[in-house]
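Predicting structure from sequence has reshaped protein science. With that in mind, we have picked out one protein's residues alongside their backbone shape tokens:
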Amino acid sequence: MISVLNKFYNKIINIFNNKTEVKKYCCICHSNVSEFSCYRGGWKAQPILMSILDIVGSDVDNFSCPLCGSHDRERHLYLYLEKLEIVNKLAGAKILHFAPEKRLSKIINEFKPLNYVKADLFPTELDIEKIDMTNIPYESETFDFVIANHVLEHIPDDFKALSELIRVLKSGGIVILQTPFSSKLKSTFEDSGIDNDLLRLQVYGQEDHVRLYGLDIFDRFTSVGFVADLKHHESTLSDIDPIYYGVNAQEPLFLFRKKSCVG
């Protein structure tokens, strides 16, 4: 009888240990977690077109940290910025951050930038300025860094937005332009007939997206004068296990620079 109880006890302990086994790590809150939370049921629940087009963007299976709430795209961006030592250049810099992620914003503030403008068309916090990316109320050559992490896919006139971003960026400045894209599409897809939430969800992957970028993404972004400085996970973050850190290894860092003025 005792041996049977011991076996039962050991079985319960093993089940508990397996459930609480640490499998992932959040680089934002520096915590070990058993799993990251998925987004809307993960990849298996996404619109079929997203799988057919092999969309590169958020890791919807490892989306948010159950402890701090950080999303995979801000964890990935932070890893890139840290590895490239860009975070060390934030001190004393002027930064414009669209749709600022709460956790990433806190980290940026810790580096004590000279001026950190958090912007959104629909602000949710008092310290976020109401700013339309297609009409930025700042003088030309104001900012050293501009961050727009998964924002451009929401903006109807992205060319006008890109023109404004390069205008307010200083010569030699850096802009981060993360956005979902498909390597299966030769050119970016956007259509005025996709005009309701259900259609946008099925075609673009989210109800408030207005386009899906294709392989012409670099031509579109550099058409206003930006110079591409693309970074890939496999080379830049070769020591970072994407499964352990809960990030999408297929997502590159869309880093662009504004040419320095000569003379």
Summary: The chain has one domain: 37-258. The mean pLDDT is 92. Residues 2-19 form the longest helix (18 residues).
